[in-house]
Amino acid sequence: MEKIVIAGGSGLIGTGLANHLRKAGHEVWVLSRKPSGLDGFLNWDPKTGSIDPDAITKTTVLINLCGAELAAKRWTKSRIRELYSSRVETTNFLFESFKDSADLKQYVSASGAVAYGFEHPEKIYKESDSFGKDIISDITRKWEKAADQFASVCTVSKIRIAVVLSESGGALQKLANPVKKGFGAVLSSGEQAIPWIYSEDLYRVFEWVIAHKLEGVYHASAGNTTNKELTKLIARTLKKRLLPAVPAFAVRLLFGKMALMLLHGNQVSNEKIHSEGFSFLHGNLNSTIQRIFG
Q: Where does the NAD-dependent epimerase/dehydratase domain lie (predicted)?
């Protein structure tokens, strides 16, 4: 059994992951700015530089899920700064807090699977491929560079997470909501790639990486789809019709700079995590969507 502390653990992924790891027999604590005396939560605030000493004492695994959601708001200058700081500066604070720990054995950082640029949409990227030159890739690169500081303390694992499919919220529900209301549509050509993973499998990837002390970068992706395929599959499952595709210029007008991640994507390989003995329980997109919406 490990004592696991999760930073950024109050969101969709963190809540599910904490429950999953507790069921697996681990002692799990979630860092929160407002713990309100709830069991399983410890206080911290990176902006003020405070953290409960109990979060550090005897903690063997630290998981960092911190990072402002990429698709939550338009990418104004202040929002872009927040996308960087919520990842990089928070990681820096965690390192300063844990750098002298004699107990920490593993640091597991969330990261993004869409990190390789959009010049070669036909390519299936491996973890060893270079970062792209766009803003999403740069955010990911600097996030992982900050995580690498922990190499002087413990094993460092970086999990590049695909789009998470879940009943409880996240990107899939944002895509499905307009479909449910009758005004869903494919974006532009719809050919933009979307790597995906079901939430339960994502939690299992984290558990596997921890159990086997895996070091380095791993993709958490069960497969690759496209905006068109996923949107049509949701509509078919919900028995809803789609409107004509939204032109690219309209997406840019509506979302500004954030349209970059809506109009582009990349495919990623999951061969590396497979080679470590991991098997996905939900590797079929059709049955996964049926499971969520059927």
A: 4-214
* CATH number for the domain harbouring residue 186: 3.40.50.720
Helix (H, G, I), strand (E, B) or coil at 240: coil
DSSP helix/strand/coil, 159 = strand
State the burial class of residue 237 (Cβ atoms within 10 Å of its Cβ: 0-12, 13-18, 19+).
middle
Inter-residue long-range contacts of 90-93, CB under 8 Å, 24+ positions, other chains counted: 90/7, 90/8, 90/46, 90/64, 90/66, 91/64, 91/66, 91/143, 91/146, 91/147, 91/149, 92/146, 92/149, 93/46, 93/49, 93/51
Closest C-alpha to 172, from 292, 8, 10:
292
Give how many domains the chain has, as a whole number.
Answer: 1
The whole domain housing 262 covers 3-293
Q: What are the pLDDT digits (tens) for 206-218?
A: 999 999 999 999 9
Nearest to 6 by CA among 34, 36, 27, 25: 27
Tokens coding 55 = 């979060």
- pLDDT of 11 reads 87
Q: At what angle do helices 77-98 and 135-147 cross, to 10 degrees?
A: 10
- Dist CA 258 CA 255 (whole Å): 5
236 has a pLDDT exceeding 60? yes
For 115, the token pair is 């990190």
CA distances from 219 to 43, 109, 169, 216, 243 (A): 30, 12, 21, 10, 33
- Running DSSP on this structure, what letter comes out for residue 103? S
Q: What is the mean pLDDT of residues 221-241?
A: 98
CA-CA distance, 142 to 201, in Å (whole number)? 26
Q: Is the pLDDT of residue 283 over 60?
A: yes
Please report the pLDDT score of residue 249 as a whole number.
Answer: 97
